[in-house]
Each structure stands twice: as structure tokens, then as C-alpha cells.
Amino acid sequence: ENHMQEKLPLRDKRVVITAGPTYEAIDPVRFIGNHSSGTMGAELALRAADLGAAVDLILGPSALKVQHELVTVHNVVSGDDMYEAVHKVYEQCDIAIASAAVADYKPAHVAEEKIKKNDDTFTIHLVKTKDILASMGEKKKGQFLVGFALETQNEEENALKKLKKKNLDAIVLNSLRDKGAGFKTKTNKITFIDKDGSITPYDLKSKKEVAEDIFDQILIKTT
Ligand code: CTP
Ligand code: CA
């Protein structure tokens, strides 16, 4: 054992992170998805690992390669897959962060064959997906649970509502108001809100730096 390792604040801790989009199949060749790149979640995973934690990164379809001795990547496709993968590791973890952009709805039925073009209009019946983060909140036994919120109106109020509803310890409000924040960018502008309602706004910065800010907050609240 070297001395560096002993000083790391998340040594002996397990961290679970969800990241990336989900793909909800329509037929064998089509899906409903979104533009999430998974970058924010990957940066969170690397930061947690650099702090000494053993990390399970549950990653939806993404081109990202996340390489760190302490990070195990679990590649998943759909929201249902992500739910299963999360609950295999969630009970044993100390800190969990949900940064995935999980599809809110999925096709009620997946066609077995490629759907042929026929009428001028075509309707896909959608049903709600499982709320993975809410299920983590329900099963919480001492884990420090952090969610993300993407809001376009009454941002802080809605984020705090989400925190309460899903039984979270903190929520990271992702502001889309600033150009340069969000899905297709290398930067994010966040506000960290904890369950006591204390609100910390941050400047627009790289997702790597945002990951550092988020773990600084988590460390204050857990140690
Ligand atoms: N989330 C999840 N499973 C879902 C939907 C959302 O785990 N099926 C998580 C996201 O990873 C995020 C948080 O819940 O951490 C909030 O996601 P968001 O899309 O902002 O909120 P929703 O609860 O889906 O509500 P809405 O989209 O209507 O605002
Ligand atoms: Ca949603």
C-alpha cells in the first residue's frame, strides 16, 4: 500500500453513476433516443476514481471510452437494461449519482420485423419507462443519492420538487439558459441544491471541472 492511496477521501467507498442516453427499440433497426453523450457521467466516474472510490459506471449507448483502474463500465442500451444493471450494484454502494438522460417513454410494443412504410401517417404508442432514480430513492439505505435536473422554467423550484419526490440528498440543476451548457457541449453551468435547500450556483465551466465541484460538495456532505 502506498501513502498516496491512504489519503484519498473516497478510499474503500463504492460509487454508482448512471450516464448517457437510453435507446428504446421501435423495431429491430429503429429506436427512440436522445443526444446525451455521457461525458458528464464519465467525468464524474473518473473524478470519483481519482478520489479513490471503486466506481460502477452504468453507461447507455455512447462512443466514450472510460479507462481507469477503479472504474467498471457496464454498457446498457434501454432504460430497462439500465434499471437492472443499477440494482445489481446499488445496494452495496455509498454514493450514487444519476446523470443519465433516460427516455421518459418507450414503445408499448417492439415490432419483431422491420416496420414497412404504408399509410401517410404512423403512430407509435408510448408508455412510461421506469424511473430509475426514483427507485433508488425508494430503496435507499444510507447511500448518498444525487440526481440531475434539466429544467427550462422555475428551475430551482422544480429541481427541489424533484429532489423531494425522488428522496434524494442533493440535486444538480443543469442550466440550459447559458449557451455552451448541455448535451452537445464540453461545458456545463450547474447549481448544486441539497435537501436542506442550500443552493450553490457555479460558473460555466468544463465538465471535468463541474465533476470536481460536484464531488467537493458530496465530500462536504458525507465526511
Ligand atoms: N431519471 C431516471 N430514470 C428515468 C427518468 C429520469 O433515473 N426514467 C433520472 C435522471 O437521470 C435525472 C433525474 O431522474 O437524474 C431527473 O431527470 P429529468 O428528466 O430532469 O426529470 P424527470 O423526473 O424525468 O421529469 P421531467 O422529464 O418530466 O422533468
Ligand atoms: Ca425526463
TrEMBL record:
Per UniProt, CTP binds at: D104, K114, F148, K162, K166
Q: Cofactor(s) for this protein?
A: Mg(2+); FMN
EC?
4.1.1.36, 6.3.2.5
Q: Which pathway is recorded for this entry? A: Cofactor biosynthesis; coenzyme A biosynthesis; CoA from (R)-pantothenate: step 2/5; Cofactor biosynthesis; coenzyme A biosynthesis; CoA from (R)-pantothenate: step 3/5
Q: Quote the cofactor binding remark.
A: Binds 1 FMN per subunit.
Keywords from the UniProt entry: Decarboxylase, Flavoprotein, FMN, Ligase, Lyase, Magnesium, Metal-binding, Multifunctional enzyme
Q: What residue stretches are annotated with the DNA/pantothenate metabolism flavoprotein C-terminal domain?
A: 10-219
Q: Name one GO molecular function term.
A: phosphopantothenoylcysteine decarboxylase activity
Start and end residues of each stretch annotated as Phosphopantothenate--cysteine ligase: 15-223
List the catalysed reactions.
(R)-4'-phosphopantothenate + L-cysteine + CTP = N-[(R)-4-phosphopantothenoyl]-L-cysteine + CMP + diphosphate + H(+); N-[(R)-4-phosphopantothenoyl]-L-cysteine + H(+) = (R)-4'-phosphopantetheine + CO2
What protein family does this chain belong to?
In the N-terminal section; belongs to the HFCD (homo-oligomeric flavin containing Cys decarboxylase) superfamily.
Known function: Catalyzes two steps in the biosynthesis of coenzyme A. In the first step cysteine is conjugated to 4'-phosphopantothenate to form 4-phosphopantothenoylcysteine, in the latter compound is decarboxylated to form 4'-phosphopantotheine. Catalyzes two sequential steps in the biosynthesis of coenzyme A. In the first step cysteine is conjugated to 4'-phosphopantothenate to form 4-phosphopantothenoylcysteine. In the second step the latter compound is decarboxylated to form 4'-phosphopantotheine.
Protein known as: Coenzyme A biosynthesis bifunctional protein CoaBC
Whose protein is this, by species? Answer: Dokdonia ponticola
